[in-house]
Automatic annotation (TrEMBL), chain A:
Signal peptide: none annotated. The lineage of its organism: Eukaryota, Viridiplantae, Streptophyta, Embryophyta, Tracheophyta. It comes from the Eukaryota. It comes from Rehmannia glutinosa. Residues 306-317 have a biased composition (Basic residues). This is Ribosome biogenesis regulatory protein.
From TrEMBL, chain B:
Residues 287-314 have a biased composition (Basic and acidic residues). Keywords: Nucleus. This is Ribosome production factor 2 homolog. SMART domains: Brix. The lineage of its organism: Eukaryota, Viridiplantae, Streptophyta, Embryophyta, Tracheophyta. It is found in: Nucleus, Nucleolus. InterPro entries: Brix, Rpf2. Belongs to the RPF2 family. Signal peptide: none annotated. It comes from Rehmannia glutinosa (Chinese foxglove). Residues 278-314 are annotated as: Disordered. Residues 27-237 form the Brix domain.
Length: 328, 314
């Protein structure tokens, strides 16, 4: 029997005999078993022939052979990973032709004349170790150079974090986020137009009994109910109370509140904050109305006041114009 | 936006192990059972677990809600597959309608890819075989496969079962194989169009005259008859996606480059013919300057014509 009849897949150590037929319908189980083992031996021998004839290298444990790739394809268990888009720095480096250079862990420190580590405990060029910073000509008097350095470092770190976040967002868009990283939203988005999809609540569902005659009326009722529930209603809060304890960055709100009140008070009582044009227009309009009422015959062209840039006293009746302070 | 990472390096490494890879390593198997099992089925499940000791997980509790062939009953399986990172599962259940039922299934991206339902008959466990203990196969060795019978090619269900069995018992795909460590075979014979005889045997390599040793099969492991009951093929689109291989693995053939042992890398450059006749000639061709100069030298006896002066309009 020519062994080329068997389909041999060396990568999987598989042999398939597609032409075997039981000579007689198998009578007993032992016959099946015997036949199977016989045929199996032949098939395995065929695979072994091909296998042992491959070039092998001698190793301590035995001859090692390089297997070819399996021919029978099997499905993957996970989708193919998408390639990561290059980061902002990688794009720049490629454009400029900057090669990656690995830094050594130990750096020679001139000050002490010893080899110190680059990062970590007792490192080279530690920011905290500098005792004296000499003033440059460009420095303003009164600025703390140590604080400046700290601020600069902080801004650098923040910039780096921003860049890292940007790179990760790009990777997420391409579907290639690293498996140990997740991007989470810090606050819920303000859904002005987008309402969260609401499920029909239990009470709504139990309200209707959709049988026979009252089907349409019930359906209409439910629709109304849903529409009413969807309409944006005014939040019951009418007053805003500031938190009792001033947290970080919350101090502003109190200041804003008091500023607002103060401005309102000042604007009522100060005559310098006067929109002169508006005042004159209002006066003119009132005059015209009065003239129209009195008689149409009289000419209304004459004495229309034009806004003069000089400051007038407030003539409108709005607000309590208490004439404290300056008069013209 | 906030970047969430795991602080422990060990957890990060575990997550990276579970991430999708370009070239995949071995698949893990999840072995579990449903509401009711028989003693036969219990031993089948434990023996499959022992055959695949290094890369399988066996659950011992019963799982009521799992019905692989129904649309709602797969959610639990998919959840377990996600949590244990197993892409193959073996689910055993026993009922009056389907006695000694075994569902072999695969997942793609932790969703059910395909299923084969098989009934177990005539099961013989590992303990019932007596053999020389030295022949016992080691855990994790790469097995041989022998499929016998034309029904594996002609019948759709058996073809599917062949693929699933191969996937289940294959282990890792390796390039370097130690020939001394070959010691097991899985023999599957198609007895009829829906029944196969499955057996696990140990290999004995006997000395023969040539490099190739003579193979001898000794039955050691579980042997059973599998009757195919139901099966579900994967969706065509899903199948296409799952069968994709990494694009870089297809080797690009570089033309006109030859590696010579002595000279190194040699390349051939083909230059197209120069079309001399078709080239356009310009007026200021430098070559013509010589000709003009020579012509001038020859014609020196004749006086050069004086330059014509401009005559003003008078």
């Amino acid at each position: 029997m020519a062994e080329t009849q068997y389909e041999v897949d060396l990568g999987n150590l598989l042999a398939f005999d597609a032409h075997h037929q039981f000579a007689s319908p198998p009578s007993s189980r032992e016959e099946i078993v015997k036949e199977a083992l016989e045929q199996g031996t032949k098939l395995v021998q065929a695979v072994a022939d091909a296998l042992f004839n491959l070039p092998s290298t001698e190793d301590l444990e035995g001859p090692i052979v390089k297997l070819p790739a399996p021919t029978s394809k099997l499905p993957r268990e996970k989708p193919l990973p998408k390639p990561r888009p290059p980061t902002k720095w990688e794009v720049f480096a490629q454009k400029k032709g900057i090669q990656k250079r690995n830094k050594e862990k130990l750096v020679f420190d001139e000050q002490t004349g010893s080899w110190k580590r680059r990062h970590g405990y007792d490192r080279v060029n530690d920011d905290n170790d500098i005792p004296i910073i000499e003033a440059k000509a460009t420095d303003e008097p009164g600025t703390d150079p140590f604080a400046e350095r700290r601020k600069e470092k902080k801004s650098k770190v923040e910039k780096q974090e921003k860049n890292r976040l940007h790179n990760l967002k790009q990777a997420q868009k391409a579907g290639a986020l690293p498996s140990h990283i997740q991007l989470a939203a810090t606050s819920l988005p303000i859904t002005g137009t987008q309402t969260m999809p609401k499920k029909v609540s239990k009470d709504l569902a139990t309200k209707c009994c959709w049988n026979g005659s009252n089907f349409n009326s019930q359906r209409w009722k439910i629709r109304q109910e849903i529409a009413w529930r969807k309409t944006p209603k005014h939040e019951k809060k009418y007053r805003k109370f500031l938190p009792a304890v001033e947290g970080s960055g919350m101090g502003d709100m109190e200041r804003q509140q008091t500023e607002k009140v103060l401005n309102k008070l000042i604007s009522k009582n100060s005559h310098e904050i006067l929109n002169v044009e508006k005042a004159v227009n209002m006066y003119n309009v009132k005059r015209e109305k009065r003239q129209r009422k009195q008689g149409g015959g009289q000419s209304s062209s004459s004495s229309k006041f034009k806004p003069n840039k000089k400051s007038f006293k407030k003539t409108s009746h709005k607000g309590s114009s208490s004439n404290k302070g300056k008069s013209k | 936006m906030r970047i969430k990472t795991q602080t422990k390096g060990r957890i990060r490494r575990e997550l990276d192990k579970r991430a999708p890879k370009l070239v995949e390593t071995g698949k893990k198997t999840l072995i579990l059972h449903g509401t009711k099992t028989s003693s036969v089925l219990n031993s089948v499940l434990t023996e499959i677990y022992h055959l695949k000791k290094g890369n399988s997980i066996k659950y011992s509790r019963k799982n009521d809600k799992i019905r692989p062939f129904e649309s709602g009953g797969e959610a639990s399986l998919e959840f377990f597959s996600l949590k244990t990172d197993c892409s193959l599962f073996v689910f055993g259940s026993h009922s009056k309608k389907r006695p000694n039922n075994l569902v072999l299934g695969r997942t793609y991206d932790h969703h059910i890819y395909d299923l084969v339902e098989v009934g177990i008959e005539n099961f013989r466990s590992m303990e019932s075989f007596s053999y020389d203990k030295k022949l016992a196969p080691q855990i994790g060795s790469k097995p041989f496969f022998a499929f016998i019978g034309e029904a594996f090619e002609s019948v759709d269900e058996l073809k599917h079962l062949k693929e699933v069995l191969l996937d289940l018992f294959r282990g890792e795909v390796v390039t370097n194989l130690n020939l001394a460590g070959l010691d097991r075979v899985y023999v599957c014979t198609a007895v009829s169009s829906n029944k196969i005889f499955f057996s696990h045997c140990a290999l004995r390599l006997k000395k023969s005259g040539t490099v190739v040793p003579r193979m001898e099969l000794v039955e050691v492991g579980p042997s059973m008859d599998m009757v195919v009951r139901r099966h579900r093929h994967p969706d065509d689109s899903l199948r296409k996606e799952a069968m994709k291989t990494a694009p870089e693995l297809t080797k690009k053939k570089v033309k006109n480059v030859v590696k010579d042992d002595i000279q190194g890398k040699l390349g051939k450059i083909y230059i197209p013919d120069q079309k001399v006749g078709d080239m356009p000639l310009t007026n200021n061709v430098k070559g013509l300057k010589e000709e003009r100069r020579e012509a001038k030298m020859k014609g020196e006896d004749s006086k050069p014509t004086p330059k014509k002066q401009k005559q003003d309009a008078e």
